[in-house]
Amino acid sequence: MTYRYDIAIVGGGIVGCSILSALAQKGVSNAVLLERLDLTSGSTWHSAGNTTHFGHYSDITKLYADSLEFYLATEKATGNPIDFHRTGSLRLATSQKQLAEYESLKRTFAKLGVPFSVIDGRDAGQRHPLLDSRGIFGAAYTPADGHVDPSLTTRALAKIATICGAKIERNCLVADFRKNGTNWELDTTSGTVSARHLVLAASFWTRELAMKADIDLPLFAVEHQALITDDIPELISREDELPAVRDPAAPCNIRQEGNALLVGVYEREPKFWGTEGIPSDFGQDLFPPDLDRLEIHLSRAIERMPVLGRCGIKTVINGPICFTPDGYPLLGHVDGKHGLWLAAGFQVGVGTGGGSGQYLANWIINGKPPYPLPAVYPSRFRSPLDKSECLRRIKAAYSGSYVGASHRG
Ligand SMILES: Cc1cc2nc3c(=O)[nH]c(=O)nc-3n(C[C@H](O)[C@H](O)[C@H](O)COP(=O)(O)OP(=O)(O)OC[C@H]3O[C@@H](n4cnc5c(N)ncnc54)[C@H](O)[C@@H]3O)c2cc1C
Questions:
Q1: 346: Cβ below 6 Å to ligand 1?
Q2: Domain that holds residue 362
Q3: With a 6 A CB cut-off, is 375 part of the ligand 1 pocket?
Q4: DSSP H/E element including 90
Q5: How far is 278 from 252, CA to CA, in rounded Å?
Q6: Distance 126 CA to ligand 1 centre (A)
Q7: Is there a domain that residue 404 lies in?
Q8: What is the per-residue pLDDT across 363-406, written as a single tens digit (0 to 9) for each?
C-alpha cells in the first residue's frame, strides 16, 4: 500500500517539526513527518537551547526573531510549556574592530524592532557580576535573548501540527527515495510514501539521503562539547538569571543553568564525525567527553569568568552538530529537482529553526521565497565541493564562531 501526501518531511528534530507546524497552521494538513526513531533523536535533544537574536544582517536576525516568536506562539496555542528564560545576552568585543562591527549593526536591529545596544566593559561587568571585564572593549547587549527547552519546544510544535491535521510517523526510517512521475516515492520501514513535495530535514544524515538523488551536499558533523558545572554559591543566592555571555576569544558561550553554568565551546581543532557515513547503529547517542581538547579554551574562559576555575564539572555533553562550509543552513529548493527541498545543515537549529520552518513553508505554498535570503539557498554552492576543501572550510567556520560574519548562537 502507498500512503499519499502533498508534502513529506524527513526528520523530526526542531527544524522538521517547525516546518510541519508552519505548513499545517497555514492550512496544508495533508502533510506527514517521517522520523526514524522518536522526535528530537538527532542533535535537538542534547542542545543547550540558546535562542539569540544576534545576526550580522537583518534577514538572518529576522530568522532568529521569528523563531522565538513562533515558539512562544506555539506555547500559547498548545498550553505546552517551552520553558523560555529571557536572560539577555552579552556578546563581548575583545578588539576595537569587533566593537565597531557591533556599532554598525544598530540600524539592522532597529529596523526589525529587536532591542539591541552596545555597552562599555564596565556596564557589561555590572550586568554580569561573575565576568572579569578587564580587557573587554565593550559588548553587544541583546536583552530579548534567552534559552528554551529544545525537546519541550519540539513537542509543542509537533502538537500544534497534529491538532491542525498533519501526521507524524515515528519509528519510520526513510531508506531510499526516487522520482516517480510528478511525485517523490519513499521506501520507509512503514511502507511506501508518495508526495508531491519532499523536504529533507535530517540534519547530518541529509548528506547520505541526498546522495540517493545524486546530490552531493556540503555538510558534515562535528563533535561539539558543552559542560555543566557544579552548583555555584554566587548563583544560589541570586534572584535573577544572569545574561548569557559569548566570548569570541575563547570562543565559547556561557549561560546560567539552574544554579550552575553551562559552557559551550567551539574548538580550534574540531573533531569531525561520520565523514565516511553516519554509522547505522547511531541511535540517540552522545560521544565520550574529551576534556583535554577543551583545555586551551577553558583556560581562556576561566580568565574571563574566574569562578569557572573554582568549581567542579558535573556533566560534559559531547554530541554531533551539523555544519556547512559557511556556517549557514541549506534552506530552500534544490535546483533542477522539482519538488525537492532542503532544510539541513543547521548549527543553530534551535535559534533559527522556527523562523526557517515558516520561511520554507511559505516558499513551498506560494512557489517563491517570502523574502530574498540568498545566504541560505542551497544553490549558493553551485558545484559540488571537493570533500577535503569542504572539511577545511567547515573547520574554519566552526572554530571561527562569534568572529566576523559568522552568526552562531
Ligand atoms: C552540545 C550541543 C549544544 C548545542 N546548543 C545549541 C544552542 O544552544 N542553540 C542552538 O540553536 N543550537 C544548538 N545546538 C545545535 C542544535 O542542536 C541543532 O542545530 C539542531 O538540533 C538541529 O535540528 P535539526 O532538526 O536540523 O536536526 P536533528 O535534531 O538532528 O533532527 C534530525 C532528525 O532526523 C531524523 N532522521 C535522520 N535520518 C532519517 C531517516 N533516514 N529517516 C527518518 N528520520 C531520519 C533523526 O532521527 C533526527 O531526529 C547544539 C548542538 C550540540 C551538539
A1: yes
A2: 2-399
A3: no
A4: strand 89-93
A5: 27
A6: 35
A7: no
A8: 999 999 999 999 999 999 988 889 999 999 999 999 988 876 54
